[in-house]
Amino acid sequence: MPETLLIIFDGDCGLCQAARRWAQQRDRQHRLSFVPYQGADLERLAPGLTAAQAARALYAIAPDGRRFRGARAVFETLRRLPGWWGLLGTLGVWTPISLLVEPCYRLVARHRARVSQWLGLTQCQLEPPAEPL
Fold first, then answer.
1. Domain assignment present for 110
2. Is residue 28 part of a domain?
3. Is position 125 within any domain?
4. 35 falls within a domain
5. How many domains does the chain have?
6. Which domain holds residue 13?
7. Which residues make Cβ contacts (< 8 Å) with residue 55, sequence separation at least 6?
8. SS3 helix, strand, coil % of the chain, rounded to 5?
9. pTM of the model
10. Which end of the chain is more exposed for a tag (fewer CB within 10 A), N or C?
11. What is the DSSP-derived secondary structure letter of residue 49?
């Protein structure tokens, strides 16, 4: 697993920014690359991924093009970190665990502006971009 995982996140979200900083501090082998969806060329990075989709969930794009979203993207990210975090990620990518955690991920993602505010982080706006016609 030596190649870089591309993580597409909400660059305007305080919670997302804090999570990115946390992961980057632990990513000693530089296996993660973070790109905020705002202003990113999503069609080039992840063909078919829209800004509206990226506004609703975290996406991780593997070097071979496989796409992961939500809780699974979080676990794929953790899997590339050293120590216990990598072990947690390895366990979490197991489909039953990812499926069990996904509703919690969606709840936090839906209310991330409020969670950011409660944690004293930059508060984000959750108005997703309109889908193109």
1. yes
2. yes
3. no
4. yes
5. 1
6. 5-118
7. 10, 37, 126, 128, 129
8. 50, 10, 40
9. 0.86
10. C
11. -
Angle between helices 83-92 and 95-110 (to 10 degrees): 100
Question: What is the reported pLDDT for 130?
Answer: 55
Let me know: does 72 contact 105? Beta carbons within 8 Å: no
Tokens read off for 130: 């309109």
State the DSSP string of 82-126: SHHHHHHHHHHTSHHHHHHHHHHHHHHHHTHHHHHHHTTPPPPP-
Contact 122, 17 (CB under 8 A): yes
Q: What is the pLDDT of residue 2?
A: 52
Query: What value does the CA radius of gyration of the chain take, rounded to a whole number of Å?
Result: 14
Q: Side by side, which strands form the sheet with 67-69?
A: 32-36, 5-9, 59-61, 67-69
